[in-house]
């Protein structure tokens, strides 16, 4: 198994991905890649901006859902996607810095990231979870 990655897994009504990584911050990055992959997003790589936002401090599952829902909100409101994330712990929460790219197109809509059966598991190689998306 690679040290990090994601794959779509079968789900009866919604869409889901299994995600694994060396640590929690890498899990956030892989989860974003997986969500964007499900949406089949086409970015415009010729325009790049630096973006910053904060995810309020909470348990790992809530931070993951809030992080992905923030990215989803920005897809819908700003037609923007993000990559090359860096994370800094602050008093209020997790400061996220990333490259922002305009979106040329996306093929599938995701309504929300859910807590359905969401548990982040510590493994020998790092962390793993399955994320379900409401479509």
Give a short overview.
Helices cover 26% and strands 44% of the residues. It has 135 residues and is α+β, with helices and mostly antiparallel strands. The N and C termini lie far apart (29 Å).
Layout: helices, strands, pairs:
Elements: E1 5-9, E2 15-21, H1 24-39, E3 41-43, E4 49-56, H2 60-78, E5 80-89, E6 93-106, E7 112-113, E8 121-122, E9 127-134
Antiparallel strand pairs: 1-2, 2-9, 3-6, 4-6, 5-6, 7-9, 8-9
Helix pairs in contact: 1-2
Which features characterize this protein?
four-stranded antiparallel β-sheet; five-stranded antiparallel β-sheet; alpha+beta; 135 residues; Archease, Possible Chaperone, Chain: A, domain 1
Give a verbal description of the structure.
This protein has 135 residues and is α+β, with helices and mostly antiparallel strands. The chain has a single domain, classed as Archease domain (Archease, Possible Chaperone, Chain: A, domain 1). It is built from two helices and nine strands, in the order E-E-H-E-E-H-E-E-E-E-E. Strands 1, 2, 7, 8 and 9 form a five-stranded antiparallel beta sheet that branches. Strands 3, 4, 5 and 6 form a four-stranded antiparallel beta sheet that branches. Helix 1 runs parallel beside helix 2 (60-78). It is globular.
Catalogue the unreliable spans. none
How confident is the prediction overall: mean pLDDT? 94
Label the CATH architecture: 3-Layer(bab) Sandwich
Q: Indicate the radius of gyration in whole angstroms.
A: 14 Å
Tell me the domain tally: 1
Q: Topology as H/E string?
A: EEHEEHEEEEE
Q: What is the CATH T-level topology?
A: Archease, Possible Chaperone, Chain: A, domain 1
Hey, roughly how much beta strand do the residues contain?
A: 35-45%
Shape assignment: globular
CATH level-1 class? Alpha Beta
The separation of the N and C termini measures: 29 Å
Structural class by secondary-structure content: alpha+beta
Helix content: 25-40%
Main sheet overview: 5 strands, antiparallel
Specify the CATH homologous superfamily.
Answer: Archease domain
């Amino acid at each position: 198994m690679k040290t990090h990655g994601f794959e779509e897994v079968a789900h009866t009504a919604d869409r889901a991905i299994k995600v694994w990584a060396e640590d929690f911050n890498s899990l956030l990055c892989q989860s974003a890649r997986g969500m964007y992959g499900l949406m089949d997003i086409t970015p415009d790589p010729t325009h790049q901006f630096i973006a910053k936002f904060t995810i309020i401090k909470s348990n790992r599952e809530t931070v993951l859902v809030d992080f992905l829902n923030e990215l989803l909100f920005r897809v819908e409101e700003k037609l923007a996607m993000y990559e090359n994330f860096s994370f800094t712990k602050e008093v209020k929460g997790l400061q996220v810095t990333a490259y922002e790219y305009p979106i040329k197109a996306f093929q599938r809509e995701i309504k929300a990231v859910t807590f359905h059966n969401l548990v982040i598991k510590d493994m020998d190689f790092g962390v793993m979870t399955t994320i379900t998306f409401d479509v």
